[in-house]
């Protein structure tokens, strides 16, 4: 008798799993229909919070930087996570070059090799005033990174004011510049 009960339990697990997954799927479809669910939305819990603790080794020609140095800044800084292997990072380099005349940009080379980053910056220009390395990606995790490129506007005192989880564009830089006024 106990063997039959165990068999029924084992057979019911896949059906229960399918029912729960189906319920979640129906909830998403209902949210899409009502307009309160965006599958492309990224929830970043770091907005309006202090920057996380970190310390980055330098990426030549920079000596790197850390949390305390960023917190001591008296003007806004744009932190840009990038990588030499990232095609969208290449596409945003022109926008970063133009933006660097309006705001200091500090770069974080995400999961990349120093030689590859140096070559990338030599070929495409260097809009960064400082560059640090995040070779393992641990700093990116602390910042809530979902991929590269991503940019964060840091206000004086080290508060994250704005986050952009894709390549910067002319439209996004207009939003950023309006935040600086």
UniProtKB/TrEMBL annotation:
Domain Thioredoxin: 45-181
Localization per record: Cell envelope
Phosphoprotein in keyword set: no
A Pfam family that the UniProt record links to this protein: Redoxin
Listed GO MF terms: isomerase activity; oxidoreductase activity
GO biological process: cytochrome complex assembly
PANTHER family: THIOL:DISULFIDE INTERCHANGE PROTEIN DSBE
Listed name of the protein: Thiol-disulfide isomerase or thioredoxin (TrxA)
Organism lineage string: Bacteria, Pseudomonadati, Pseudomonadota, Alphaproteobacteria, Acetobacterales
């Amino acid at each position: 008798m106990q063997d039959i009960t165990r068999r029924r339990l084992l057979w019911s697990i896949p059906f229960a799993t399918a029912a729960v997954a189906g319920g979640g799927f129906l909830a998403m479809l209902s949210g899409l229909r009502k307009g309160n669910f965006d599958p492309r939305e990224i929830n970043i819990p770091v907005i309006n919070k202090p920057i996380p603790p970190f310390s980055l080794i330098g990426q030549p020609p920079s000596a790197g930087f850390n949390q305390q140095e960023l917190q001591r800044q008296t003007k806004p800084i744009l932190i840009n996570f990038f990588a030499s292997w990232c095609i969208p990072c290449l596409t945003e380099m022109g926008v970063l070059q133009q933006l660097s005349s309006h705001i200091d940009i500090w770069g974080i080379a995400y999961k990349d090799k120093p030689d590859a980053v140096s070559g990338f910056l030599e070929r495409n220009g260097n809009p960064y005033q400082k560059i640090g390395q995040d070779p393992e990606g641990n700093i990116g995790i602390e910042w809530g990174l979902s991929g590269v490129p991503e940019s964060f506007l840091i206000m004086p005192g080290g508060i994250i004011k704005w986050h952009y989880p894709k390549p910067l564009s002319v439209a996004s830089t207009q939003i950023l510049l309006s935040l600086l006024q």
